[in-house]
Design goal:
Number of strands: 19
Number of domains: 2
Bound molecules: pyridoxal-5'-phosphate
Radius of gyration: 23 Å
Shape: globular
Strand content: 15-25%
Low-confidence stretches: none
Number of helices: 13
CATH superfamily of the largest domain: Alanine racemase
Helix content: 25-40%
Structural class: alpha/beta
Distance between the termini: 49 Å
Mean pLDDT: 97
Length: 423
């Protein structure tokens, strides 16, 4: 499918007069339409809730949009919990799916009433010691091991993943938790990442539902919710077919009817923790081409770098690039599009066929709305960019300012840095 930016060259020419590149821009209209579709796709389940994976895009303005469609927050750290609390979310609207969790983070999660999703069997004891007693509602992350396959091949390798309880640990854990007073149980699993197929959630759901039925029969645990977590993917490359959330929701409904309903578990709530699917396509990284270098290859140097978008550098991930204003020009130039880090993997694209790029051209790097700005770091002393919301009426709102040197140096107060820098 042709990838078209959600913003035009004319709009960007206006925006850059106020907000210099690089920046991430998000599409309110797209976020809303998609969140509405997710809500509709699972409306057959009375208790359905999407807990947006805050780690993907921890911006309260964007999360606020999702809240209009009933979404809560899935948190993995203290600061994500703090952000959710600052947004006045109720406890049951916060899922805490962490791993290798410090005691202080469990205390904080418990204090704000978040639902705790344990990553490991030993954490039952750890949590009890930390809190004095186990909360009434508790969830466990399941990892059946092995390879996760769907009809069109291997999806991922849970047997190699550090997360979750084994099957035996899950059964043993539920018995122990029940003895210790837990009343409401949840199950969670994340077995494959960025799945571009409508089969992933239904296959995962079937596996979880079957285990849930056995768990209930063997331990008597009252299973209130099953959390399918994240992993629903997006088409980063133009040749991929996007997932259809209505087909996915219907697929989950079918296995729900087949497995849970006959077992008398038709009141179980389905939860999800999607990040990428909720936000990924609705973000662009906008950068300016500032250098053209002709050596052993043709390089386009831009004013963004891996600090603004790490996925190509760490995973070799493909992100589509549009040269704004040249959408219909022939892609007859082969470029490496690179950032300014002193790291040779700081390349947004390698050997990419694009229209001829001149200094000053604006490039849109697609699908940066999730695990984009959030993954940024400060290597080489580079500063993280601004985030801007393109609103439904076409106006823009700054939803996070760009970092400044003063922010970068803030933790060097032991060196009296602000005085020395004259800030
Ligand atoms: C526990 C948990 N839930 C949800 C997500 C969101 O995943 P995705 O963005 O692929 O939907 C992640 C991603 O790392 C995760 O670790």
């Amino acid at each position: 499918m042709k990838k078209t930016p959600f913003v035009t060259r004319e709009q960007l020419d206006e925006i850059v007069k106020t907000y210099p590149t690089p920046f991430h821009i998000y599409d309110e209209k797209g976020i809303r339409e998609n969140a509405k579709a997710v809500k509709e796709a699972f409306s057959w389940n009375k208790g359905f809730k999407e807990y947006f994976a805050v780690k993907a895009t921890p911006n309260p303005f964007l999360i606020d949009i999702l809240r209009d469609y009933g979404c809560g927050c899935d948190c993995s750290s203290l600061t994500e919990l703090m952000l959710s609390e600052a947004m006045d979310l109720n406890g049951e609207d916060i899922m805490f799916s962490s791993n290798e969790t410090p005691a202080a983070e469990y205390e904080y999660a418990n204090k704000i009433g978040a639902i705790i999703n344990l990553d490991d069997f030993t954490h039952i004891d750890f949590l009890e010691k930390t809190l004095g007693k186990l909360p009434e509602t508790l969830s466990c992350r399941y990892n059946p091991g092995g390879i996760f396959t769907v009809s069109n091949g291997i999806m991922d390798n849970p047997g190699d993943a550090k997360y979750g309880f084994t099957t035996e640990q899950l059964f043993e854990g539920f018995k122990i938790m029940k003895q210790k007073g837990v009343k409401n149980f949840g199950m969670h699993a994340f077995l494959a990442s960025n799945t571009v197929t409508n089969d992933y959630y239904p296959m995962l759901a079937k596996q979880l539902f079957e285990v849930a039925v056995k768990l209930k029969a063997e331990t008597g645990a009252e299973i209130k919710f099953i959390n399918l977590s994240g992993g629903v993917g997006i088409p980063y490359t133009p040749d991929q077919t996007p997932n259809d959330i209505h087909v996915i929701g219907e697929g989950v409904r079918k296995v729900f009817e087949e497995v849970l309903v006959p077992a008398g578990m038709g009141d179980v709530s389905i939860y999800t923790e999607m990040g990428r699917f909720m936000m990924g396509p609705y973000g662009h990284l906008v950068t300016t081409a500032i250098h053209a270098k002709h050596t052993h290859k043709e390089y386009i140097g831009c004013d963004a770098c891996a600090v603004n978008l790490m996925r190509p550098a760490i995973y070799g991930a493909y992100h589509h690039i549009t040269v704004m204003g040249k959408e219909n020009d022939p892609c007859d130039h082969k470029y490496d599009v690179v950032g300014s880090l002193c790291e040779n993997n700081d390349k947004f694209a390698i050997d990419r066929m694009l229209p001829e790029i001149e200094n000053g051209d604006l490039l849109v790097i697609h699908d940066t709305g999730a695990h984009g700005h959030a993954m940024g770091y400060n290597y080489n002393g580079k500063l993280k960019s601004a985030e801007i919301l393109l609103k439904e009426d076409g106006s823009v709102q700054l939803i996070r300012r760009a970092e400044t040197p003063k922010d970068y140096f803030a933790t060097l107060d032991c060196f009296d840095i602000y005085r020395k820098m004259g800030f």
